């Protein structure tokens, strides 16, 4: 892992999160199911965006959240994700660069508009999400920069992108480039339904091209079609170098060929919003790994980052994670 410019390069959906507040009456008026996520089209984006009140616009997406968390720890990161050459594409690029992340994927001159997620937060803290995946899903191997992959210790792949053949091929291309350069590849499974749709392809990728796997309990049991977490641990052992399995309030488990390491969850006085918990866990774990920490300490850094992000609304840390980790004695 020497001679690298970046700790992590993430590949994932490039989405602009547009976060605004509303009351329950607004949701009812626009036939929105409170607390749920729905997929919408470009016309619905224009309509809903037009009637929303004041909002905050920032770069989002699962892998982008992980990269933002790594940057908050003081890590060096880059991101590959497709946006269009439009207003929201410019918002995404400006925002992710503003937090210290290298982002050079050229905006698409044709095709779908930039992906957005219109997030409506009611006074009780519930988030109702309306997602248009747009240009983000059109990522292909042509946007995978071989020199960038070679310049990062770890390439981090977002499972949500796996739905289209072009993106699937981009993942395999990235994993091959990382291996050729002597680097590591990490994959987050992202969603149990995503696993159900692509189980065989995911299992092949994990076995042949992934060094570090991130999954929650539902995702890992779905991947191996087993009924218990213990069976999933047995199935994944040896499939990749490190499997990092999160279990919400039960903490997390790190599995290697020889060891099983249990990590206690970090206590949170008031859980406000669990969005981004897995993304930020991955950020802490990967930061520790690229700094040579033990796997147990990597897990503790992940738990700390996840605890911070679920204590407030939004999938990005509000406190600098590097300072938080230092104050808790997790790093020097």
Structural class, by secondary structure, is alpha/beta
The CATH H-level homologous superfamily: Ribokinase
CATH class label: Alpha Beta
Order of strands, widest sheet = 6-5-1-9-10-11-12-13-14
Strand content: 15-25%
Question: What is the end-to-end distance?
Answer: 21 Å
Spans of at least 5 consecutive residues with low confidence: none
**Count of folded domains:** 1
Order of helices and strands: EEHEHEHEHEEEHEHEHHEHHEEEHHH
Q: What is the tally of helical segments?
A: 13
Mean pLDDT: 93
Number of strands: 14
Radius of gyration computed on alpha carbons:
19 Å
Question: Overview of this structure, please?
Answer:
This protein has 332 residues and is α/β, with parallel strands linked by helices. It has a single domain (6-12, 60-111, 137-327), classed as UDP-N-acetylmuramoyl-L-alanine:D-glutamate ligase (3-Layer(aba) Sandwich), CATH 3.40.1190.20. It contains 13 helices and 14 strands. The strands form two sheets. A nine-stranded mixed beta sheet has the order 6-5-1-9-10-11-12-13-14. The chain has a five-stranded mixed beta sheet with strand order 3-8-7-2-4. Strand 12 and strand 13 (252-255) form a beta hairpin. The mean pLDDT is 93.
């Amino acid at each position: 892992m020497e001679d690298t410019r970046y700790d992590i390069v993430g590949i994932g959906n490039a989405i602009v999160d547009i976060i605004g507040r509303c009351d329950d009456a607004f949701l009812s008026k626009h036939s929105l199911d409170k607390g749920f996520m729905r997929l919408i089209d470009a016309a619905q984006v224009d309509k809903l965006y037009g009637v929303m009140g004041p909002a905050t616009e920032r770069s989002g997406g699962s892998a982008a959240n992980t990269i933002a968390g790594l940057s908050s720890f003081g890590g060096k990161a880059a991101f590959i994700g497709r946006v269009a050459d439009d207003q929201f594409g410019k918002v995404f690029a400006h925002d992710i660069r503003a937090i210290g992340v290298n982002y050079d994927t050229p905006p698409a001159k044709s095709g779908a508009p930039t992906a957005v997620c219109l997030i409506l937060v009611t006074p009780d803290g519930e988030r109702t999400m309306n997602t248009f995946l747009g240009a983000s899903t059109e990522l292909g191997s042509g946007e995978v920069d071989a020199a960038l992959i070679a310049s990062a210790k770890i390439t981090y792949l977002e499972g949500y992108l796996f739905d289209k053949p072009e993106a699937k091929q981009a993942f395999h291309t990235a994993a091959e480039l990382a291996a050729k350069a002597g680097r590591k590849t990490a994959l987050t499974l992202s969603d149990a339904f995503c696993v159900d749709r692509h189980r065989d392809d995911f299992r092949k990728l994990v076995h042949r091209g992934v060094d570090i796997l991130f999954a929650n309990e539902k995702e890992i049991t779905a991947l191996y079609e087993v009924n218990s977490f213990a069976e999933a641990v047995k199935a994944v052992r040896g499939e990749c170098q490190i499997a990092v399995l999160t279990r919400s309030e039960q903490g997390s488990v790190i599995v290697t060929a020889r060891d099983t390491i249990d990590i206690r969850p970090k206590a949170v006085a008031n859980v406000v919003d669990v969005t981004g918990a897995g993304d930020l866990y991955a950020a802490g774990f990967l930061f520790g790994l690229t700094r040579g920490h033990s796997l147990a300490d990597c897990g503790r850094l992940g738990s700390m980052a996840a605890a911070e992000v679920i204590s407030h609304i939004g999938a990005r840390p509000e406190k600098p994670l590097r300072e938080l980790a230092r104050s808790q004695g997790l790093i020097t």
